[in-house]
Every structure is written in C-alpha cells, then in structure tokens.
C-alpha cells in the first residue's frame, strides 16, 4: 500500500509503533538483527496483539541494508503472518557529518535507502544525532546527560546540506519520502535551524519529523513547544509522537522531565494534531515511548490519537 492509498480519516490514518519495547539484544547476547525466527515471531505477535498493523523498523533492531535476502524474506513473511507491515526505516545515530565516519555513514544511508525500497517501504527516516556519550549511556534517562553537538561551522552545515540532498534525491528516485528527525544539539535541534536545513536541501520529498518531544524532555531551557510546532508543522511529512511531563523553576535554576502518555504530558496533542491536519499533514504517525511497557503505552497513545483525527476526509 502506498501512502497515496491511505484513507486519512480517524479509522484509516496510518499509525505505526516503534519497537523500543523489544530488546535489541537477548539474554544470551544475540542481537535482534541476528535472532532466530521464533524471536522475531514473538516480537511481531506482541505488536499484533496490542493492535498495531504497522511498525517502524529502526536499525537499532534490524539493519535492512545488512540483512541477507533470505533473512529479509523470512522477517517479512513473519510480519505478514502477524498482519504487520513495515512502512518505514529509521536510521539513527549514523550522522553523515560524524567526524571520521562521514563517508562510511553516507554509504550506509544509501544502502539503507535501497533496502527500504526493496522491502516495499514508503519512508526513509533519519537525523544527525550521533552515538551516546559515556555519560548518556550511564544515565537513567539519556537526555539528562550531555551528548555530541554539531559544530557552528558554515562548511560543516554546507556538507550536511549537500549530503542530505544527495540522499533525498536517491530516496526520490526509488519512490521514498525522506524525513529528518528533530534532535537536540544537532542542526535539527531548534525549529528555525530545522526549517532552514530543509529549505536549503530544497527537495519536495524531504521534510521534517517534528519530534518536539525530543526537546521538551531536556533538563535545560527550551523553546516554547507551541512555537516549535507552528514553525515546523508546515514541513512535516512523518511524525514521531510522544509526550513528557515537564517542570521547571521560574527562576531558571532547575528543570525536570520524564515520559508519560500523549494525553497527560506538556504537549497538547489535541491542538497540534488539529493544526497539522489543517496545514495538510498526510503522513504516518509513529508512536514512541521510553520506559515501562513501551509497547503498551504506544497502543494506548494510538487509541487516544485516533480520537483526535477527522472522521472523514
């Protein structure tokens, strides 16, 4: 099914889940990428049982570009048997401006685009975030520790634009949308910078994944979430949605945030979803959740989100 054939209504709008609730490595140290068929069966049956028929495949779990064709077919057959389709790939922490790995990561992104097309996907989602720092790996919540930062250097910005434009053209050639995820301390880390990046790339199939939740959770001053969405929603073509409780002292001495459901957090999704639809957003929603029963909360959030969508086109 192509995105053009979706019914963008309350009942038909494509809502997918992440696989954060599925371990990336099992108790024996085997990565999910290399797991036996019964492990994949267990994971995808859980996705089915909580009510999802769509799931994003992040390369933290499986790297489509590095999976043998026979194993690809095996995974897709298991997914289909459980009524689950894979509409998108998310390549994460493989920045194409990561110092020392620029060319390697660019080549990997190209291979991932080809794999996404071969798998019958619709969206190539990526960003500019790099692997966790040691402090982030030690933290209870990784966003509370300092991670890598994109440099304030015009030549690096230009390289990012050039390489992402190259990837965007490749994605267009094989019929994919490309979506860039907002993420702190990258060139996609503020609303203005994210919009400028997409405009500089200048391709119709390249848009934003306005994951403002990634910024709301930071233990530091942030932009007003309403203003971030007002600037970025016109460029949205794919959307990771999640929410956080947030508290901060008026004198700017402390900030805290932690995950919660879409309905309960700081972001008012009832408003921003209505705004997005009015602006013409017709992309996939991807339910994302950290901590606890991630898959269960994603299912709860999907049911809530459907109540916010228009009954008819």
What does this structure look like?
The chain has helices at residues 37-49, 69-81, 102-118, 134-138, 154-173, 191-201, 213-216, 225-232, 269-279, 294-308, and strands at residues 15-17, 57-58, 88-90, 123-126, 177-181, 206-209, 239-241, 243-248, 255-260, 285-287. By secondary structure, it is of the alpha/beta class. The protein has a single domain (3-308), classed as Alpha-Beta Barrel (TIM Barrel), CATH 3.20.20.150. The relative contact order is 0.14.
Topology:
Elements: E1 15-17, H1 37-49, E2 57-58, H2 69-81, E3 88-90, H3 102-118, E4 123-126, H4 134-138, H5 154-173, E5 177-181, H6 191-201, E6 206-209, H7 213-216, H8 225-232, E7 239-241, E8 243-248, E9 255-260, H9 269-279, E10 285-287, H10 294-308
Parallel strand pairs: 1-10, 2-3, 3-4, 4-5, 5-6, 7-10
Antiparallel strand pairs: 8-9
Helix pairs in contact: 1-2, 3-5, 5-6, 6-8
């Amino acid at each position: 099914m192509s995105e053009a054939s979706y019914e963008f209504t309350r009942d038909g709008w494509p809502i997918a889940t992440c696989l954060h609730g599925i371990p990336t490595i099992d108790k024996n140290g085997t990565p999910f990428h290399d797991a036996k068929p019964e492990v994949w069966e267990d994971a995808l049956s859980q996705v089915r049982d909580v009510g999802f028929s769509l799931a994003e495949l992040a390369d933290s779990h499986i790297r489509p570009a590095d999976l043998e064709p026979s194993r690809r077919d095996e995974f897709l057959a298991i997914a289909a048997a459980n009524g689950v389709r894979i509409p998108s790939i998310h390549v994460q922490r493989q920045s194409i401006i990561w110092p020392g790995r620029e060319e390697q990561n660019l080549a990997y992104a190209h291979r991932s685009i080809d794999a996404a097309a071969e798998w019958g996907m619709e969206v190539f989602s990526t960003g500019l975030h790099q692997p966790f720092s040691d402090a982030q790996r030690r933290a209870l919540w990784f966003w509370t520790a300092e991670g890598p930062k994109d440099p304030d250097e015009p030549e690096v910005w230009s390289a990012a634009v050039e390489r992402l434009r190259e990837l965007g053209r490749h994605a267009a050639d094989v019929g994919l949308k490309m979506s860039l995820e907002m993420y702190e301390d990258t060139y996609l880390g503020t609303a203005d910078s994210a919009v400028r990046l997409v405009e500089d790339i200048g391709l119709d199939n390249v848009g934003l994944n306005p994951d403002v939740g990634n910024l709301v959770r930071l233990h530091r001053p942030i932009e007003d979430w309403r203003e971030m969405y007002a600037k970025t929603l016109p460029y949205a073509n794919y959307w990771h949605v999640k929410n956080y409780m947030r508290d901060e002292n008026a004198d700017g001495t402390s900030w805290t945030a932690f995950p919660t459901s879409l309905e309960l957090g700081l972001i008012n999704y009832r408003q921003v979803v209505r705004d997005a639809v009015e602006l013409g957003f017709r992309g996939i929603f991807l339910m994302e959740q950290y901590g606890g029963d991630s898959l269960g909360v994603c299912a709860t959030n999907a049911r809530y989100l459907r109540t916010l969508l228009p009954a008819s086109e």
